[in-house]
Design goal:
It is a single chain. Strands 2-1-6-5-4-3 form a 6-stranded antiparallel β-sheet. A 5-stranded antiparallel β-sheet has the order 8-7-11-10-9. A 5-stranded mixed β-sheet has the order 12-13-14-15-16, sandwiched between helices. With 448 residues, the protein is an alpha+beta fold. Keywords: Phosphoprotein.
Length: 448
Protein backbone atom coordinates (compact mmCIF):
# COMPACT_ATOMS: atom_id res chain seq x y z
CA UNK A 1 0.00 0.00 0.00
CA UNK A 2 1.63 3.19 -1.16
CA UNK A 3 1.81 6.36 0.91
CA UNK A 4 1.10 9.65 -0.84
CA UNK A 5 3.86 11.45 1.05
CA UNK A 6 6.40 8.76 0.26
CA UNK A 7 5.53 8.90 -3.46
CA UNK A 8 5.94 12.67 -3.52
CA UNK A 9 9.24 12.46 -1.62
CA UNK A 10 10.49 9.82 -4.08
CA UNK A 11 9.42 11.97 -7.00
CA UNK A 12 11.29 14.96 -5.58
CA UNK A 13 14.42 12.93 -4.94
CA UNK A 14 14.24 11.34 -8.38
CA UNK A 15 13.97 14.77 -9.97
CA UNK A 16 17.06 15.95 -8.10
CA UNK A 17 19.02 12.80 -8.98
CA UNK A 18 18.01 13.07 -12.64
CA UNK A 19 19.10 16.69 -12.77
CA UNK A 20 22.44 15.85 -11.16
CA UNK A 21 23.01 12.97 -13.59
CA UNK A 22 22.30 15.22 -16.53
CA UNK A 23 24.84 17.77 -15.30
CA UNK A 24 27.46 15.09 -14.81
CA UNK A 25 26.84 13.68 -18.30
CA UNK A 26 27.16 17.11 -19.84
CA UNK A 27 30.53 17.74 -18.16
CA UNK A 28 32.00 14.22 -18.73
CA UNK A 29 34.68 13.99 -21.52
CA UNK A 30 33.79 12.09 -24.73
CA UNK A 31 35.54 8.75 -25.18
CA UNK A 32 36.13 6.31 -28.01
CA UNK A 33 35.11 3.27 -25.97
CA UNK A 34 31.71 1.69 -25.91
CA UNK A 35 29.03 3.54 -24.05
CA UNK A 36 28.50 2.65 -20.41
CA UNK A 37 25.70 0.37 -19.60
CA UNK A 38 23.03 2.32 -17.79
CA UNK A 39 21.34 0.67 -14.87
CA UNK A 40 17.67 1.02 -14.30
CA UNK A 41 16.84 3.54 -11.57
CA UNK A 42 16.20 2.13 -8.10
CA UNK A 43 14.16 4.72 -6.22
CA UNK A 44 13.80 2.61 -3.12
CA UNK A 45 17.56 2.06 -2.89
CA UNK A 46 18.30 5.72 -3.47
CA UNK A 47 15.77 6.70 -0.84
CA UNK A 48 17.31 4.25 1.65
CA UNK A 49 20.75 5.74 1.11
CA UNK A 50 19.45 9.28 1.51
CA UNK A 51 17.49 8.37 4.63
CA UNK A 52 20.58 6.76 6.17
CA UNK A 53 22.62 9.86 5.40
CA UNK A 54 19.93 12.13 6.85
CA UNK A 55 19.64 9.97 9.94
CA UNK A 56 23.35 10.18 10.75
CA UNK A 57 23.76 13.91 10.10
CA UNK A 58 25.03 15.93 13.06
CA UNK A 59 22.65 18.73 12.15
CA UNK A 60 18.93 18.26 12.61
CA UNK A 61 16.84 17.82 9.45
CA UNK A 62 13.05 17.88 9.06
CA UNK A 63 11.26 17.40 5.71
CA UNK A 64 7.59 17.98 5.02
CA UNK A 65 5.46 17.39 1.94
CA UNK A 66 3.73 20.21 0.15
CA UNK A 67 0.72 19.96 2.48
CA UNK A 68 2.89 20.46 5.56
CA UNK A 69 2.87 16.84 6.79
CA UNK A 70 6.20 15.87 8.32
CA UNK A 71 7.69 12.97 6.38
CA UNK A 72 11.23 12.90 7.75
CA UNK A 73 12.87 13.82 11.08
CA UNK A 74 16.39 12.55 11.79
CA UNK A 75 17.82 11.55 15.16
CA UNK A 76 19.47 14.90 15.81
CA UNK A 77 16.13 16.68 15.36
CA UNK A 78 14.38 14.26 17.70
CA UNK A 79 17.09 14.84 20.34
CA UNK A 80 16.91 18.63 20.10
CA UNK A 81 13.11 18.92 19.92
CA UNK A 82 12.35 16.12 22.35
CA UNK A 83 9.73 14.57 20.00
CA UNK A 84 9.95 12.33 16.97
CA UNK A 85 8.19 12.28 13.62
CA UNK A 86 4.52 13.11 13.82
CA UNK A 87 2.13 13.46 10.89
CA UNK A 88 0.75 16.79 11.96
CA UNK A 89 -0.75 19.73 10.27
CA UNK A 90 1.28 22.95 10.51
CA UNK A 91 -1.27 24.45 12.88
CA UNK A 92 -0.54 21.64 15.36
CA UNK A 93 3.23 21.92 15.31
CA UNK A 94 3.39 24.45 18.16
CA UNK A 95 1.42 22.11 20.46
CA UNK A 96 3.79 19.22 19.80
CA UNK A 97 7.12 21.04 19.49
CA UNK A 98 7.36 23.65 22.23
CA UNK A 99 9.29 26.35 20.44
CA UNK A 100 9.85 29.88 21.73
CA UNK A 101 11.54 33.04 20.63
CA UNK A 102 15.18 33.36 21.73
CA UNK A 103 14.02 34.99 24.97
CA UNK A 104 12.70 31.55 26.03
CA UNK A 105 9.36 33.03 27.11
CA UNK A 106 7.41 34.17 24.06
CA UNK A 107 5.93 31.28 22.01
CA UNK A 108 7.20 31.25 18.46
CA UNK A 109 4.33 32.03 16.02
CA UNK A 110 3.57 28.85 14.07
CA UNK A 111 2.99 30.84 10.90
CA UNK A 112 6.58 32.11 11.15
CA UNK A 113 8.15 28.69 11.53
CA UNK A 114 10.95 28.44 8.94
CA UNK A 115 9.27 25.24 7.64
CA UNK A 116 5.98 27.08 7.18
CA UNK A 117 7.76 29.92 5.41
CA UNK A 118 9.57 27.43 3.20
CA UNK A 119 6.20 25.91 2.23
CA UNK A 120 5.25 29.41 1.14
CA UNK A 121 8.32 29.47 -1.08
CA UNK A 122 10.53 31.59 1.22
CA UNK A 123 14.15 30.94 2.05
CA UNK A 124 15.26 31.55 5.65
CA UNK A 125 18.74 31.67 7.19
CA UNK A 126 19.75 31.43 10.82
CA UNK A 127 16.39 32.03 12.48
CA UNK A 128 16.86 32.01 16.25
CA UNK A 129 14.57 29.74 18.26
CA UNK A 130 14.53 27.98 21.61
CA UNK A 131 13.04 24.49 21.93
CA UNK A 132 12.03 23.19 25.34
CA UNK A 133 10.85 19.69 26.26
CA UNK A 134 10.49 17.47 29.31
CA UNK A 135 13.89 15.94 28.56
CA UNK A 136 15.45 19.39 28.17
CA UNK A 137 13.50 21.73 30.47
CA UNK A 138 16.25 24.38 30.29
CA UNK A 139 15.77 24.47 26.50
CA UNK A 140 18.03 24.26 23.47
CA UNK A 141 19.02 27.35 21.48
CA UNK A 142 18.60 26.67 17.77
CA UNK A 143 19.65 28.36 14.55
CA UNK A 144 17.17 27.25 11.82
CA UNK A 145 17.41 27.57 8.04
CA UNK A 146 14.60 26.55 5.64
CA UNK A 147 14.30 25.85 1.90
CA UNK A 148 11.39 24.91 -0.37
CA UNK A 149 11.74 21.64 -2.34
CA UNK A 150 10.77 21.87 -6.00
CA UNK A 151 10.88 19.50 -8.94
CA UNK A 152 12.66 20.28 -12.19
CA UNK A 153 9.60 22.12 -13.43
CA UNK A 154 9.55 24.35 -10.36
CA UNK A 155 6.54 22.64 -8.82
CA UNK A 156 6.58 22.80 -5.00
CA UNK A 157 7.02 19.29 -3.57
CA UNK A 158 7.62 20.16 0.07
CA UNK A 159 10.07 21.90 2.38
CA UNK A 160 13.14 21.12 4.42
CA UNK A 161 14.67 22.79 7.48
CA UNK A 162 18.11 22.25 8.89
CA UNK A 163 19.04 23.46 12.35
CA UNK A 164 21.78 23.08 14.90
CA UNK A 165 22.30 23.58 18.63
CA UNK A 166 23.64 27.11 18.99
CA UNK A 167 24.34 26.37 22.63
CA UNK A 168 26.95 23.85 21.62
CA UNK A 169 28.68 26.46 19.53
CA UNK A 170 28.33 29.01 22.28
CA UNK A 171 29.73 26.57 24.80
CA UNK A 172 32.53 25.75 22.41
CA UNK A 173 33.23 29.43 21.85
CA UNK A 174 33.02 30.08 25.58
CA UNK A 175 35.41 27.21 26.26
CA UNK A 176 37.72 28.45 23.53
CA UNK A 177 37.56 31.95 24.98
CA UNK A 178 38.21 30.55 28.45
CA UNK A 179 41.22 28.67 27.17
CA UNK A 180 42.40 31.73 25.29
CA UNK A 181 42.09 33.83 28.44
CA UNK A 182 43.80 31.13 30.48
CA UNK A 183 46.62 31.00 27.96
CA UNK A 184 46.87 34.79 27.97
CA UNK A 185 46.97 34.83 31.76
CA UNK A 186 49.55 32.07 31.80
CA UNK A 187 51.69 33.93 29.27
CA UNK A 188 51.30 37.18 31.21
CA UNK A 189 52.22 35.41 34.45
CA UNK A 190 55.21 33.84 32.76
CA UNK A 191 56.31 37.23 31.42
CA UNK A 192 55.87 38.69 34.89
CA UNK A 193 57.94 35.89 36.41
CA UNK A 194 60.64 36.44 33.78
CA UNK A 195 60.59 40.18 34.49
CA UNK A 196 60.92 39.60 38.23
CA UNK A 197 63.64 37.03 37.57
CA UNK A 198 65.59 39.56 35.48
CA UNK A 199 65.17 42.19 38.19
CA UNK A 200 66.35 39.77 40.87
CA UNK A 201 69.26 38.64 38.72
CA UNK A 202 70.33 42.22 38.10
CA UNK A 203 70.02 42.85 41.82
CA UNK A 204 72.17 39.83 42.64
CA UNK A 205 74.77 40.53 39.96
CA UNK A 206 75.41 44.19 40.77
CA UNK A 207 74.95 44.65 44.52
CA UNK A 208 77.18 43.38 47.31
CA UNK A 209 74.39 41.27 48.81
CA UNK A 210 73.57 37.61 49.35
CA UNK A 211 70.03 36.27 48.99
CA UNK A 212 69.39 32.83 50.44
CA UNK A 213 66.57 30.53 51.45
CA UNK A 214 66.28 27.48 53.68
CA UNK A 215 63.52 24.95 54.31
CA UNK A 216 62.05 24.10 57.70
CA UNK A 217 64.97 21.70 58.35
CA UNK A 218 67.58 24.37 57.69
CA UNK A 219 68.64 22.97 54.30
CA UNK A 220 69.72 25.72 51.90
CA UNK A 221 67.58 25.83 48.75
CA UNK A 222 68.87 29.09 47.26
CA UNK A 223 72.18 30.90 47.62
CA UNK A 224 73.21 33.64 45.21
CA UNK A 225 74.52 37.18 45.01
CA UNK A 226 77.78 38.99 44.41
CA UNK A 227 78.27 39.37 48.15
CA UNK A 228 79.23 35.70 48.57
CA UNK A 229 82.71 36.65 47.37
CA UNK A 230 83.19 38.66 50.58
CA UNK A 231 82.73 35.44 52.54
CA UNK A 232 85.19 33.53 50.34
CA UNK A 233 82.43 31.46 48.72
CA UNK A 234 81.08 30.94 45.23
CA UNK A 235 77.50 31.60 44.21
CA UNK A 236 75.27 28.63 44.98
CA UNK A 237 77.99 26.86 46.96
CA UNK A 238 75.84 26.39 50.06
CA UNK A 239 72.79 24.91 48.28
CA UNK A 240 72.00 21.55 49.85
CA UNK A 241 73.94 22.24 53.05
CA UNK A 242 72.44 22.64 56.51
CA UNK A 243 72.73 26.21 57.78
CA UNK A 244 72.48 25.04 61.38
CA UNK A 245 75.80 23.25 60.91
CA UNK A 246 77.44 26.33 59.37
CA UNK A 247 76.26 29.28 61.43
CA UNK A 248 75.91 29.60 65.18
CA UNK A 249 73.36 31.67 67.04
CA UNK A 250 69.62 31.41 67.43
CA UNK A 251 68.68 33.77 64.58
CA UNK A 252 67.55 30.98 62.25
CA UNK A 253 65.52 29.28 65.00
CA UNK A 254 63.78 32.57 65.76
CA UNK A 255 62.93 33.08 62.10
CA UNK A 256 61.64 29.50 61.75
CA UNK A 257 59.48 30.18 64.80
CA UNK A 258 57.70 32.88 62.81
CA UNK A 259 59.65 35.99 63.82
CA UNK A 260 61.09 38.63 61.52
CA UNK A 261 64.77 38.94 62.40
CA UNK A 262 67.14 41.83 61.78
CA UNK A 263 70.64 41.39 63.17
CA UNK A 264 74.21 42.56 62.59
CA UNK A 265 77.08 40.20 63.33
CA UNK A 266 80.82 39.96 62.71
CA UNK A 267 82.01 36.94 60.79
CA UNK A 268 85.80 36.64 60.52
CA UNK A 269 86.41 40.34 60.06
CA UNK A 270 83.42 40.91 57.78
CA UNK A 271 80.39 42.63 59.26
CA UNK A 272 77.06 41.35 57.90
CA UNK A 273 73.59 42.80 58.29
CA UNK A 274 70.92 40.08 57.99
CA UNK A 275 67.19 40.26 57.35
CA UNK A 276 65.29 37.00 57.83
CA UNK A 277 61.64 36.57 56.85
CA UNK A 278 59.64 33.40 57.65
CA UNK A 279 57.69 31.81 54.80
CA UNK A 280 54.19 30.71 55.85
CA UNK A 281 51.94 28.33 53.92
CA UNK A 282 48.16 28.68 53.63
CA UNK A 283 47.73 26.63 56.83
CA UNK A 284 50.01 29.11 58.69
CA UNK A 285 52.76 26.49 58.89
CA UNK A 286 56.29 27.91 58.54
CA UNK A 287 57.93 26.09 55.65
CA UNK A 288 61.20 27.98 55.54
CA UNK A 289 63.02 31.28 55.73
CA UNK A 290 64.04 33.79 53.06
CA UNK A 291 67.03 35.90 53.97
CA UNK A 292 69.15 38.72 52.66
CA UNK A 293 72.65 39.45 53.93
CA UNK A 294 74.51 42.66 53.16
CA UNK A 295 78.21 43.26 53.65
CA UNK A 296 78.27 46.43 55.74
CA UNK A 297 81.94 46.32 56.73
CA UNK A 298 82.90 49.56 55.00
CA UNK A 299 79.75 51.49 56.02
CA UNK A 300 80.25 50.26 59.59
CA UNK A 301 83.85 51.47 59.65
CA UNK A 302 82.73 54.79 58.20
CA UNK A 303 80.04 54.99 60.87
CA UNK A 304 82.56 54.38 63.65
CA UNK A 305 84.86 57.06 62.20
CA UNK A 306 81.96 59.49 61.96
CA UNK A 307 80.88 58.76 65.51
CA UNK A 308 84.48 59.39 66.66
CA UNK A 309 84.57 62.69 64.81
CA UNK A 310 81.20 63.73 66.23
CA UNK A 311 82.40 62.88 69.75
CA UNK A 312 85.52 65.00 69.19
CA UNK A 313 83.44 67.88 67.86
CA UNK A 314 81.16 67.63 70.90
CA UNK A 315 84.13 67.77 73.26
CA UNK A 316 85.52 70.74 71.37
CA UNK A 317 82.17 72.46 71.59
CA UNK A 318 82.13 71.92 75.32
CA UNK A 319 85.60 73.43 75.59
CA UNK A 320 84.53 76.37 73.46
CA UNK A 321 81.44 76.90 75.57
CA UNK A 322 83.53 76.83 78.70
CA UNK A 323 85.87 79.35 77.14
CA UNK A 324 82.94 81.53 76.16
CA UNK A 325 81.78 81.72 79.78
CA UNK A 326 84.93 81.37 81.92
CA UNK A 327 83.74 82.04 85.47
CA UNK A 328 86.82 82.56 87.64
CA UNK A 329 86.88 82.74 91.42
CA UNK A 330 89.68 85.28 91.88
CA UNK A 331 89.18 85.74 95.64
CA UNK A 332 87.08 84.37 98.42
CA UNK A 333 83.47 85.33 97.66
CA UNK A 334 84.56 87.15 94.48
CA UNK A 335 83.78 85.87 90.96
CA UNK A 336 84.79 87.39 87.65
CA UNK A 337 83.33 86.73 84.21
CA UNK A 338 85.35 88.09 81.26
CA UNK A 339 83.08 88.67 78.24
CA UNK A 340 84.59 88.42 74.76
CA UNK A 341 82.83 88.83 71.43
CA UNK A 342 79.09 89.02 70.85
CA UNK A 343 76.57 88.15 73.54
CA UNK A 344 73.51 86.58 71.87
CA UNK A 345 70.43 85.03 73.47
CA UNK A 346 71.90 81.48 73.60
CA UNK A 347 75.16 82.65 75.14
CA UNK A 348 73.40 85.02 77.57
CA UNK A 349 71.19 82.18 78.83
CA UNK A 350 74.23 79.93 79.38
CA UNK A 351 76.16 82.75 81.12
CA UNK A 352 73.22 83.46 83.40
CA UNK A 353 72.77 79.80 84.35
CA UNK A 354 76.46 79.19 84.96
CA UNK A 355 77.02 82.43 86.88
CA UNK A 356 74.03 81.98 89.16
CA UNK A 357 75.08 78.39 89.88
CA UNK A 358 78.62 79.56 90.71
CA UNK A 359 77.35 82.38 92.98
CA UNK A 360 75.14 79.98 94.90
CA UNK A 361 77.89 77.33 95.15
CA UNK A 362 80.67 79.68 96.35
CA UNK A 363 78.47 82.00 98.40
CA UNK A 364 80.07 84.90 96.55
CA UNK A 365 79.42 88.51 97.54
CA UNK A 366 80.59 90.08 94.28
CA UNK A 367 80.31 89.11 90.61
CA UNK A 368 82.42 91.17 88.22
CA UNK A 369 81.30 91.28 84.56
CA UNK A 370 84.33 92.43 82.57
CA UNK A 371 83.58 93.93 79.13
CA UNK A 372 87.16 94.62 78.09
CA UNK A 373 86.84 92.16 75.20
CA UNK A 374 83.50 93.45 73.96
CA UNK A 375 83.89 95.73 70.94
CA UNK A 376 80.25 96.44 70.13
CA UNK A 377 77.15 96.58 72.29
CA UNK A 378 73.67 96.74 70.84
CA UNK A 379 70.32 96.92 72.55
CA UNK A 380 69.98 93.13 72.86
CA UNK A 381 73.51 92.69 74.28
CA UNK A 382 73.01 95.47 76.81
CA UNK A 383 69.70 94.02 77.86
CA UNK A 384 71.32 90.59 78.34
CA UNK A 385 74.03 92.06 80.60
CA UNK A 386 71.52 93.96 82.73
CA UNK A 387 69.42 90.81 83.09
CA UNK A 388 72.50 88.89 84.24
CA UNK A 389 73.29 91.49 86.90
CA UNK A 390 69.66 91.63 88.05
CA UNK A 391 69.63 87.85 88.52
CA UNK A 392 72.91 88.02 90.52
CA UNK A 393 71.44 90.73 92.74
CA UNK A 394 68.46 88.50 93.57
CA UNK A 395 70.91 85.97 95.06
CA UNK A 396 72.31 88.59 97.43
CA UNK A 397 75.48 89.41 95.52
CA UNK A 398 76.52 92.68 93.93
CA UNK A 399 77.16 92.88 90.21
CA UNK A 400 79.97 95.07 88.93
CA UNK A 401 80.69 96.02 85.31
CA UNK A 402 84.29 96.78 84.39
CA UNK A 403 86.27 97.53 81.23
CA UNK A 404 83.64 99.51 79.32
CA UNK A 405 85.28 100.98 76.23
CA UNK A 406 84.51 104.54 75.11
CA UNK A 407 82.62 103.41 72.05
CA UNK A 408 80.55 101.01 74.15
CA UNK A 409 79.87 103.77 76.70
CA UNK A 410 78.63 106.07 73.94
CA UNK A 411 76.38 103.33 72.58
CA UNK A 412 74.88 102.66 76.02
CA UNK A 413 74.15 106.35 76.53
CA UNK A 414 72.60 106.69 73.07
CA UNK A 415 70.45 103.67 73.79
CA UNK A 416 69.18 105.32 76.95
CA UNK A 417 70.11 102.42 79.23
CA UNK A 418 69.61 103.02 82.97
CA UNK A 419 72.90 102.06 84.68
CA UNK A 420 72.22 104.06 87.85
CA UNK A 421 71.81 100.91 89.96
CA UNK A 422 74.87 99.20 88.48
CA UNK A 423 78.39 99.84 89.82
CA UNK A 424 80.80 100.46 86.94
CA UNK A 425 84.61 100.69 87.21
CA UNK A 426 87.28 101.40 84.62
CA UNK A 427 89.27 98.14 84.71
CA UNK A 428 89.04 94.65 86.03
CA UNK A 429 91.83 95.51 88.49
CA UNK A 430 89.71 98.35 89.87
CA UNK A 431 86.77 96.01 90.26
CA UNK A 432 88.85 93.41 92.11
CA UNK A 433 90.32 96.08 94.37
CA UNK A 434 86.87 97.42 95.21
CA UNK A 435 85.50 93.97 96.01
CA UNK A 436 88.47 93.04 98.20
CA UNK A 437 88.29 96.33 100.10
CA UNK A 438 84.59 95.84 100.67
CA UNK A 439 85.16 92.34 101.99
CA UNK A 440 87.97 93.59 104.28
CA UNK A 441 85.95 96.39 105.79
CA UNK A 442 84.45 95.60 109.13
CA UNK A 443 81.14 97.08 108.19
CA UNK A 444 80.83 95.30 104.84
CA UNK A 445 77.44 93.73 104.25
CA UNK A 446 75.38 92.42 101.39
CA UNK A 447 73.57 95.09 99.39
CA UNK A 448 69.88 95.35 99.99
Amino acid sequence: MSHPGLEEECAALRAQVAELSARLAATAPAGDGPPREERAPDPEGELAVLRAAFRDLADAVIISDHEGRLVHCNDAATKMLGAGLAHLQPADWADTYHVFLPDGVTPFPSSEFPLQRALRGEITEGVGMLARSEALPEGVSLSVSGRPIRDKDGELLGAVVVFGDVGVRKRYEAERERRRNADAQRIAAEKDRLRLARILQGFLDNLDVVVWAIDDKGICTFHDGRGVESAGLTRGQLVGQNFFEIYSGDHLQRALAGNHVHVIDDGEGVIWEHWMVPVAEEDKRISGVIGMSVNVTEPHKAKLELEGKLALIQRQQEVILNLETPIIQVWDHVLTLPMVGVVDSRRAARVTDDLLAAVARTQSRFAILDLTGVEVVDTATAAHMLNILSAVRLLGAEGIITGIRPTVAQTMISLGLDLSRVRTLATLRDGLGFAIRQLGSKGARSPS
